[in-house]
Each structure stands twice: as C-alpha cells, then as structure tokens.
Amino acid sequence: xxxxxxxxxxxxxxxxxxxxxxxxxxxxxxxxxxxxxxxxxxxxxxxxxxxxxxxxxxxxxxxxxxxxxxxxxxxxxxxxxxxxxxxxxxxxxxxxxxxxxxxxxxxxxxxxxxxxxxxxxxxxxxxxxxxxxxxxxxxxxxxxxxxxxxxxxxxxxxxxxxxxxxxxxxxxxxxxxx
Amino acid sequence: xxxxxxxxxxxxxxxxxxxxxxxxxxxxxxxxxxxxxxxxxxxxxxxxxxxxxxxxxxxxxxxxxxxxxxxxxxxxxxxxxxxxxxxxxxxxxxxxxxxxxxxxxxxxxxxxxxxxxxxxxxxxxxxxxxxxxxxxxxxxxxxxxxxxxxxxxxxxxxxxxxxxxxxxxxxxxxxxxx
Lengths: 178, 178
What we know:
Two copies of one chain form a homodimer. By secondary structure, chain A is of the alpha/beta class. In chain A, 43% of the residues lie in helices and 20% in strands. In chain A, strands 3-2-1-4-5 form a five-stranded parallel sheet, with helices on both faces. In chain A, helix 1 links the parallel strand 1 and strand 2 (49-57). The radius of gyration of chain A is 17 Å and the shape is globular. The termini of chain A are far apart. The interface between A and B is medium-sized, with 22 and 22 residues.
C-alpha cells in the first residue's frame, strides 16, 4: 500500500451562513466542522491536504428575508442577486482567509439549489476523498421539522462522509438556529 | 486555534472477521477501511495518529458455526471459547502488524456482545476523536435483512463517524458476504 506521490487528500466541506439575526457570516456548525478538520485531520501536515469549500444558496430562503422590500423592476431583483452573491462571497472569504493563515491550500465556490442535492451532485463532479458537513445535532423531534442535510449526504454522497455535530455548549438559545 | 502539544488524533476502528468460508481473517470492508484511513488521513504523518482496533465477537454467531460439534462436557465449551479467542487475536494481529510496518502506534482489544451496541459503548469509554467503520455498501432491500452496524454508529456514537463503503470491484459473489 503506497500513498501516491504528489497526491493530496481533497476534503470537500459544505459551509453555510449563520441563521442568527445580526450574527455575522459562517454558521456555528460550519466553523466547528472546519476547526475539527484542521485540529484532528490536517494537523501540521498542511501540504498533504486541500480543502474545497462549497456554499449552497437556497433561492427561496434568500427571498424570504426580503419580504418587506418592494420589487418594482427587474433592477430590484438584480440588486437582490448582487447582495446574495456578496453574502456568499463574504462567507467563503472567511474560510479562505483562515486556510491562508494556516497554510493549507483551498478552493471555494457557490452554487444555488437544494443544499443536500447540490452537495451530493458536487461530490459526484469533483470526486473529493472525503466530505465534511457540520450538523446542529438536533434530536429526532426537531429533525422532523427542519430536515437534515447531513443525514441525506451520509446516505447518498458517493464518498466517505464525516458529520461533525455542534457541541452542546456552542448551541444558541434556539437549537434550530446555527 | 492551536493543536495541543503532544496530542495525537485517536482513531477507533471497528474490525470484523471475514464471513467467507475458508477466507482467512479480516473482512474485506475492515481492510478497506484501514487502507483508506492510512492513505487518506494518516498519510506519512504517522506520529500524529494512534489507531485503536476493537473487535466485537458475537456469542450467538460464533456458536452457530459449531452446530455440528458435540458439547458433552464443560471442557468442550472451554475449548470453543479458546478457539474464538484465538480467531479474534489472529484478526487483531493482522492490523497490529500492519501498523508496526507503517510506523503508526496502535492498541487492540476484543469485546463480546452486539457489535453496534458495544462499539458505541466503547466510544463513550475511550473517547476517540473519530470512529471509522467499514460497510458492505448494501442496498436498502439487503439492509432490511442484515442490519447495518455503520448506520447505528453514525446515529448513536458520541464522536464523529466515517463509514467507508466497500468498493464495487471488491464485493464478493454474494454481497452480504464480507
């Protein structure tokens, strides 16, 4: 058993924005999954890994925040799209900056659609060695209402998957928030 | 974010014997999970990891193989127990030897009981950073009959879990075998 010369282990991470009002940028579970991956897998062996960050924007949810706004012209929709893109880029910039500080190479991109479907589709396309997804660690009752991206990916992604559950002391007041 | 000095990432692996008649020692999925962990996670950074091998012997299944034997005295049962222990030790010796060749430190032990329950109990006891389990990658129809240890562990183990599915070209004639 030999490790291929020059090969790196490519880890795809699905990252999401925080749902907490006024809470900026990356969700608690995304940051937890990133920290865990660096501390437990990459460690100081930074040249052996490459992190791939995928952020999936949900078209309907993004619109929901803007129900108070008035859309009177195509230009209004264009500005919404620009704002969404800016938020997504800001999220990815957080992880890309941290990777540069740590010295591990990375790539990051945005897709739109249903996160669980898009993540599994991107796994098929980019063929990472490993998919890491954060999870709020909700109980069975809460899961019925919010669904979980991580459970779907564990079942359907065509590569090994690690789910990193948010630790109890990091959970916000409403555990459905992240 | 600092990696603790002197700390290692402790990876618990649940390993099982092959179910194939005359096929010696470690199951295909256990060997696949081990190879994947070395190639994709440990890589050449051997001093940063410690592998913990847990083999769970199922009392009923072990007895089942011996239905043709005659148990006439307590001594007969004792010899069965010795034989089981020898098989389990042989299995663990395979993984311990490979770790020594690679230069990664390890520990190995045997427990008896229901594998999925015992693995989750041992996770609680030894608190590894990560649990790796192999899986036959069976379809939903086959899973109903054979159950899967990996699905239970993903849901119930109190640490992150990676399931490594057996690759299609390694599957034996009967995919329920391993």
